[in-house]
Structures are given as structure tokens and as C-alpha cells.
């Protein structure tokens, strides 16, 4: 299981972006992320995919998952119903890892029971 944002586990930072220009200013070790509902989500996804940038996208519906999945993100961030998105990823043999956005350490065990690929702590993302 992947765990991002735990104070005892070192990890690459996640950096929120709204413009493609911001991606060039981000460290190569960072993971850029944005929301599927952002005005430029398709442009950002295409840019990251074309240029081999490791990125994550936040989705709130299966439709958003399906649309964004086609750009091959490294991670899909979900706040609700993580099991639904994990099943989609498994059924469609997605290379993207599903990360459940969590609020406390106790949710890690829940994620394990649901067999979610990983978790990311909400404060780590600045939500």
C-alpha cells in the first residue's frame, strides 16, 4: 500500500497546478496534481502525458475517472467511495494507482480492508 503525507514516511511532494507553465517550475521529483473539474484539466493531462510528467488527478465521479484515465495519470485521487474507483481500476487494468484522500491514520486500516492501492493525507495536499 502506498502512503503519502504520513509524518514518519518520507515521500515526494504533491504540488497543485492550474497552468502548464507551473509544471516546468516544479521539481522533477514532485508529483503535480489538479482536479478533473478544473477548466484546464484536459490540457494539463495531455501536457503531462505527452511530456512524461508524473501526475495525479482528483476525480469525483466515474465519468471523470473514465475521461482522465485515458491520459494515463500515475495516480487517481478520490475523496468518496474509494472502493468504486478501485474496482474500476482493477476491471479496466489501469496502471494508475487509486489514492484515497484521508483525514486520519485510522483510515489506513479501512483502506487496507477495501484493498485500495494507497492513501494520501488531506493536509499533505493542502485541501
Across the major sheet, the strand order is 1-7-6-5-4-3-2
- List the domain count as a whole number: 1
Indicate the overall shape.
globular
CATH topology: TIM Barrel
Query: Ranges with pLDDT <50 over ≥5 residues?
Result: none
Q: What would you report as the Rg, rounded to the nearest angstrom? A: 14 Å
Compute the separation of the termini in Å: 22 Å
Overall number of strands: 7
Number of separate helices: 6
- β content, as a range? 15-25%
Q: How would you spell out the order of helices and strands?
A: EEHEHEHEHEHEH
User: Biggest sheet, open or closed, and with what strands and sense?
Assistant: 7 strands, parallel
Helix content: 25-40%
In round numbers, the mean pLDDT is 96
CATH class: Alpha Beta
User: Helix/strand/pairing class, anyone?
Assistant: alpha/beta
Write the CATH architecture name: Alpha-Beta Barrel
CATH superfamily: Aldolase class I
Question: How would you portray this structure in words?
Answer:
By secondary structure, the chain is of the alpha/beta class. Helices cover 37% and strands 24% of the residues. Strands 1-7-6-5-4-3-2 form a seven-stranded parallel beta sheet. Helix 2 links the parallel strand 3 and strand 4 (55-59). The longest helix is centred in the middle third of the chain and has 11 residues, at 41-51. The radius of gyration is 14 Å and the shape is globular. The model has no long low-confidence stretch (mean pLDDT 96).
Strand and helix layout:
Elements: E1 2-4, E2 14-16, H1 20-24, E3 31-35, H2 41-51, E4 55-59, H3 62-69, E5 75-78, H4 82-91, E6 97-102, H5 106-114, E7 118-121, H6 122-125
Parallel strand pairs: 1-7, 2-3, 3-4, 4-5, 5-6, 6-7
